[in-house]
Amino acid sequence: MSDIQTKVAARRAELAQEEKIRSEKQAALAREQKIIDQEERLKVAGESTTDGLSPVEIEAILHKQAKSLWSTQDNVLVFGLVIGGLILLPVGGLGAIPIAIGLFMANSLGKRYRQTLRDRYPDKFGRADT
After folding, report:
1. Which residues cross the membrane (predicted)?
2. What is the Cα–Cα distance from 103 to 87, expressed in whole angstroms?
């Protein structure tokens, strides 16, 4: 009797896991659709994008577009430092240094590429005083 109960419990856990994965996929698709909708609104707005979008929406699009400018080398360097730091973390906390460097590099690359986009498209993203 316990064998059947074990199988039923395993199947229920499997179904719950599948439902969780399905809901996570739906949430990810909804987030992606929201970004696509924002980009469409940006295209429709034309020259003066601040009329059609809030500053938060413009920053979200700017952030996404800046991430798309990252080269493969940028990604490998940042993720390599963070993952290497996580691996070294149990060794006397030595991993904190590469993690900090990786996070700093990710932040500085993001700022640089956002500024590049602002300089390239001042009519869409405006100029920042940074």
Report:
1. 76-104
2. 15
DSSP assignment of 68-107 equals HT--HHHHHHHHHHHHHHHHHTTTTTTTHHHHHHHHHHHH
| Nearest-angstrom CA–CA distance, 114 and 111 | 5
The amino acid that residue 43 corresponds to is K
Distance CA 51, CA 53 (A): 6
Written as six digits, the tokens of 14 are 């499997």
Tell me the CB-side half-sphere exposure of residue 71, using CA atoms within 13 A: 4
Q: How far is CA 113 from CA 37, 78, 120, 124, in A?
A: 22, 15, 10, 15
For the chain, what are the domain ranges?
71-130
- Model confidence at 101, in pLDDT bands (50, 70, 90)? very high
What digits encode the pLDDT tens for the residues 6-36? 888 888 889 999 999 998 888 888 877 777 7
Token look-up 């700022």 returns 111
pLDDT at 46 over 80: no
